[in-house]
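A reminder from the course coordinator: this example appears on the midterm review sheet, so study it carefully.

Given structure:
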């Protein structure tokens, strides 16, 4: 039991340091403990058996199981956070008549994100967001100036970091966008072909991203993470300049390119240039048309 107590103190300390320890976190642990407390009897039984000569090896198995159980009660979403506690809803972002540029910031701990073009909606609709967030609703904060708007989207509660959120963001092709997404673990798909995205920034620890580049305007894309696995589709009508910096990197392409420090992909004719920058420790990147 010393292992369990020590590990609990370590986990609480780490969560407090990173600002992730909340009342919801504690409640989640208590709910899991209340549901699975009979497992403690198993640990007590193993502890008694390990005192018998010839069964001393059980103490190592018991220690491993205790560690797994402590991690389980803290990180496994309890019934409090799952099932009916998963919030599914749709949010609509409205654009002002004077808006020329719309910035959308999204902050989620773990997320599956899809960005695509919006079809058959009112011209004043900047975005329609279908979302599923575990144990929380989304809070949308708006800041506006004469020519631009900024929307900051984040969960209402820190409890959502215990589960993966799903976001489907549909954008109006009539507006120019700046997209900034922050997520510790991100699995994403960006269908930007019909969209005018001036800037796309992705930050996280682990990012998987499938990118279809915009065919209607230049885009500045920056991806920063410890581990990146990405596939990029480059249209014929653009010139794309790719910079990939990583300690370990694997860049594969079936397209002709020029450059040494930079990869420059361009078709027979191009209308504009887009820029891509990847910064990571480990990078796996595939570029195709």
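Designed residues:
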């Amino acid at each position: 039991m010393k292992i369990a107590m020590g590990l609990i103190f370590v986990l609480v300390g780490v969560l407090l340091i990173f600002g992730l320890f909340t009342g919801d976190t504690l409640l989640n642990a208590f709910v899991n403990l209340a549901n699975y407390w009979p497992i403690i009897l198993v640990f007590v039984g193993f502890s008694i058996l390990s005192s018998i000569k010839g069964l001393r090896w059980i103490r190592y198995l018991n220690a491993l199981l205790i560690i797994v159980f402590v991690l389980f009660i803290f990180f496994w979403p309890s019934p409090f956070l799952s099932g009916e506690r998963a919030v599914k809803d749709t949010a609509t972002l409205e654009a002002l008549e004077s808006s020329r540029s719309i910035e959308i910031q999204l902050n989620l701990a773990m997320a599956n994100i899809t960005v695509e073009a919006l079809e058959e909606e009112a011209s004043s609709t900047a975005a329609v967001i279908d979302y599923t967030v575990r144990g929380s609703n989304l809070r949308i904060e708006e800041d506006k100036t004469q020519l631009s708007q900024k929307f900051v989207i984040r969960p209402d509660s820190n409890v959502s970091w215990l589960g993966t959120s799903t976001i489907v963001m549909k954008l109006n092709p009539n507006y120019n966008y700046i997209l900034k997404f922050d997520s510790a673990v991100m699995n994403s798909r960006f269908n930007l072909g019909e969209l005018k995205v001036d800037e796309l920034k992705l930050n996280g620890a682990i990012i998987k991203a499938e990118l279809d580049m915009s065919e209607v305007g230049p885009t500045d894309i920056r991806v920063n993470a410890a581990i990146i696995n990405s596939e990029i589709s480059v249209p014929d009508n653009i010139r794309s300049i790719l910079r990939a910096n990583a300690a370990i990197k694997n860049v594969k392409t079936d397209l002709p390119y020029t450059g040494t420090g930079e990869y420059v992909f361009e078709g027979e004719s191009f209308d504009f240039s887009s820029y891509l920058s990847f910064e990571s420790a480990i990078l796996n990147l595939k570029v195709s048309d």
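Residues 110 and 185 are 5 Å apart (CA to CA). DSSP finds four helices and 16 strands in the chain.
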